Amino acid sequence: MAQYKKITRRGFVNRAGTLAAGVLASDFGILNAAGRKQSDARIEHISISYDDYEFRTPVGFAGTVMDRATMATVRCSLRTLGGRVAEGFGTIPFNQVFSFPSKKLTKEVRNGAMKALAAELVKITNGYPEYGHPVDINWDLVPRYFMAAVDVSKRLGLVDPIPKLCTLVTAAAFDAAIHDAYGKAQELNAFDTYGPEFMKYDLSRYLGPAYKGDYLNRYLLTKPKEQMPLCHLISAVDPIEDADNQKPIRDGLPETLPEWIKHNGLLEFKIKVNGTDLNWDIERVTHIDRVVTRTQEYRGVKDWKYILDFNEKCPHVDYFIEVCRRLKEKIPAGFDRIRYTEQPTSRDLQAHPENRMHEAAKLCPVVIDESVIDVESLLLARKQGWTGAVVKSQKGLTHMLLITAVAGREKIFLCGGDMSCPGAALIQTANLQARVASINPLEANARQYLPAANKSWEPRFPGMFRVADGMLRTREINGPGLGVPGA
Known about the structure:
- By secondary structure, this protein is an alpha/beta fold.
- It has two domains: 195 residues, Enolase-like, domain 1 (2-Layer Sandwich); 260 residues, TIM Barrel.
- Strands 4, 5, 6, 7, 8, 9, 10, 11 and 12 form a nine-stranded mixed sheet that branches. A three-stranded antiparallel sheet has the order 1-2-3.
- A hairpin with a 2-residue loop joins strand 1 and strand 2.
- Helix 3 crosses helix 4 and helix 3 packs across helix 5.
- The longest helix has 23 residues.
- The N terminus is likely disordered.
């Protein structure tokens, strides 16, 4: 276990406390001139813009309802030491319900806080003077990002300060933009630049001596998967059958679960459950299983899968165990179709050590999502009996790449997720998930809740946005940068 102390001490998040608040841009210089590569790049300019969308239909999860989204798009221009110039971008939904839960602050206040933090991140990132690989650039910037979150929380007088996960989500578009621009400068997909040809340092710099000689490419697929099953989200307020559809939209898109199954040829389903009413949760999953089974039998389909997601709302692990036991009794075939369950209990693993998952994981594999804020949290989750973790670039691509490396070395199961990413955001986050061997299936929820934001992307990537057989054609997204030509 000695190597884990090294990881914790140099953890992505906890390094924030090692720098004084008065650090100047010139003090970033961890990377020195010795050993620089011609591919190393320096940021020339960073900017951010926003688009606000109203959902076609609301999404119910984590005991609340979302009906709108703020998309942050960061644009980055950079220049390599060899003289190449490129522009890239990263686009990510803020989703303060997931990243910044609070009973004291409204959604509007939290969204505003994320924008205020992003404005500070623009200044910090524009002030970064060094040449380097995107992983090194992000590694140097993250401590300043976390200090900025503390400062913004104080300046705005937030009774609940900006959490670490929220800072990661706010910074994710910056990280993605830098990786995207860097890949385009090399005329390669960004995932083809994570080996020694492009990276000055091996993983021991970030993860400790056990990773000496290792690079990120060791833990990623050489080529993206050709295709991945599409996972359909069933939120806690989605109508299941016609009788549940009290406010029909009548816009030509599916509105009930059988309609969606037939429209997309669905084989994978994520079910949002509330975790606050045992009988409701059992009945919701049972109802969904009954409707899916009837529809799939009509289609002649015999194999499909479920994922359950409580978004940490179960009051304790025994609640989740009881859900598993009752579902196994009531719908044994349906229960056997559950791949895994996401985050049934509180995201704060250290504060709730009583929620050990050893017994629960014997009934159903169980993974952390909201809990994943650093390598330490991943290793703590394994110690507490969790099966694995969710990785998605909305928490920061560099951060997720390092988590992927640790999970690969320690043989910890990884799965993917979505935050209703439309258009380019789906392509960018799918680039990561298509390169991680264990991730299956792939969520693409914007087609349900933000279809207008997908419309212009359909002719460019038809295999990603026009799905009829339940499969997303991830082979389409292996273009330069993070898969989207141009900026």
